[in-house]
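Section: Multi-chain targets

For targets with more than one molecule, the full set of components is provided together so that the structure can be written out for the assembly as a whole rather than chain by chain. Components appear in the order listed by the source. The example entry contains four components.
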Amino acid sequence: MQRKGGYQTKQKTLILSYLETHPDRHITAAELLHVLTENGTPMGAATIYRQLEKLEQEGLVRRYSLDDRGSACWQYGGAEAKAGTCHLHFHLKCTECGSLIHLDCDHLREIAHHVEEDHGFFIDPSRTVFYGICAKCRGTEPGAEAEQHDCCCHSHE
Amino acid sequence: MQRKGGYQTKQKTLILSYLETHPDRHITAAELLHVLTENGTPMGAATIYRQLEKLEQEGLVRRYSLDDRGSACWQYGGAEAKAGTCHLHFHLKCTECGSLIHLDCDHLREIAHHVEEDHGFFIDPSRTVFYGICAKCRGTEPGAEAEQHDCCCHSHE
DNA sequence: TTGCGTGCAAAGGTTTTGCATGGCA
DNA sequence: TGCCATGCAAAACCTTTGCACGCAA
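Its structure, encoded as tokens over all components, is:
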């Protein structure tokens, strides 16, 4: 199989490159449209959607639908991508302020394992987003409130 | 506060009634539009969206955005609704066949607790959906494959 | 009677599709 | 040269908004 993804076009390169440069962000089609236009390479929306679809099929990027307004997001980091580690952890999205938190936590991986073993359901962390309210918006910032995490976890925005 | 939800109109009653009749389903605006029209009570889309928004604010229904195509769903069962227990558990959605699985599991509740305690993030189970692939679609049906669940969990479609 | 709710139509945003043209291999 | 990819425009969706009219209280 030499299905390496068809032709190598300027547009494809630019899109992938932008996603690669921001591996920790979830990027919308609108953002790509905007950024690429600003950088002097305007591009039809259709092209962006078509390329993102292909990149997704090639496993280089991942598609999320975590926007409230029904707009999808994409993130670099697929099976073939080394830099991306977001497929290993879960995402928390605050419904108040909209911030996206990446959560590396063995606890959560355990859960995925449990659900898989006992329920036969394979959870895809890369598609799954926990909705809720973050510490900042709740007013109970952990850390500012004395105690530190002592668990395996590691979170960052 | 007598904010019981403004006027009691035929449309509001019909919408709530349909949701009440299917407490275990996630219903889209399009489905409501279709069903109500078929039942001889056509209704403007705007009315449906406006009513759903109000019902949500009243806490009688819950809004999800689990459709791939960016269309939202609603489900009966809020704080004031006795019949609804879906706010207590998590939902698994199969990205292959689209089936929605309700998962009652102490394990998962523990997780929510853990994330809240150690990360300060309050997970809203009613908005959170796990995406993945169900046993049926993976071909490894638990049960048909010998072992039974022996954990606390209980799942149903 | 008062004011919220409705219906219709129009607008908004996101995503898809058709078709002729352009560019990679 | 032969396809695949692009661009543009139009269309398809889902959802929201404006405005005049209708109906609950």
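Confidence is low (pLDDT under 50) at residues 143-153 of chain B.
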